[in-house]
Automatic annotation (TrEMBL):
Keywords: Electron transport, Heme, Iron, Membrane, Metal-binding, Transmembrane, Transmembrane helix, Transport. It comes from the Bacteria. Pfam families: Cytochrom_C (PF00034). InterPro entries: Cyt_c-like_dom, Cyt_c-like_dom_sf, Cytochrome_c550/c551-like. Residues 43-127, 178-287 form the Cytochrome c domain. This is Nitric oxide reductase subunit C. GO terms for molecular function: electron transfer activity; heme binding; metal ion binding. The chain crosses the membrane at residues 7-26. The keyword Membrane applies. Residues 154-175 are annotated as: Disordered. The keyword Iron applies.
Amino acid sequence: MNKRQTRIFALASTGVAVVIFLGLTLDSHRQFPKLTHSENITDSVIRGQNVWHKNNCINCHTILGEGAYYAPDLTKITQHRGTPYLTAFLKDPSQFYDETKHRRLMPKQDIDDQDIADLIAFMDWVSKVDNQGWPPRPILVSGGSIPGTDLSVAQQSGNPAATSKLPPGAAPVSSANDPVALGEALFRTATPACAACHSTAPGVNLAGPTLAGIATRAQETIASPEYKGKAKTAAEFIHESIVEPSAYLHPGAMYSANGASFMPTTYAKDLKPEQIDHLVAYLASFK
């Protein structure tokens, strides 16, 4: 190839690359309204974006892949935490975590109720943007996983080596068709995922209390004078807690406010009755 041919090839290649780049850019802009659901950008969402920037939230948090990594990714936060929880958290983060134990966490922003509502509206809009699966999983706010507790159903197959790594009190799963196995899978894949708020390790409290020993604690709660629900057995109590979270309020300001639990109330509608039964079977195995 001589110099003239080389020059023509370089110019042609550059031209083709530019055309492809422009075509992809135009196609992206064509899809933006659909991917971002721009029709849902209300005045509240716009005000919430202003609150996000005014308080420099991006200095610690990440959304849609942009921001810092000091604090949890918030791209899907409204799908992992409900509005009541987020509202109470933004009003006073310190009531949710002991800073003497967990060190410096979320600072109190001192923003008013309207700003909080707008910020949550903005984050809810962000959570519904089609971002091709980002982030791949929720980032735990506190505690984290304990080695040996995040086992798959395949690992919990009755193998002695795998059984020794089960969370304390959990029974080994014998079959992928077993209700306990199906419940374990659902625990991690439901929307919002139970595992995003609850740990199965003793003493590891996240946005919700640990579920280690939940079956034993359920029996104790039912027998206590504070319990006003309808459950008579541990399984019934767990079922009630899933479909009617406010029937019994777990002690602690970080779990409820104004007589209502922060746990989502959508599981009874979004899950099939047999799926709820699978979840109950799984959780009831934690003695």
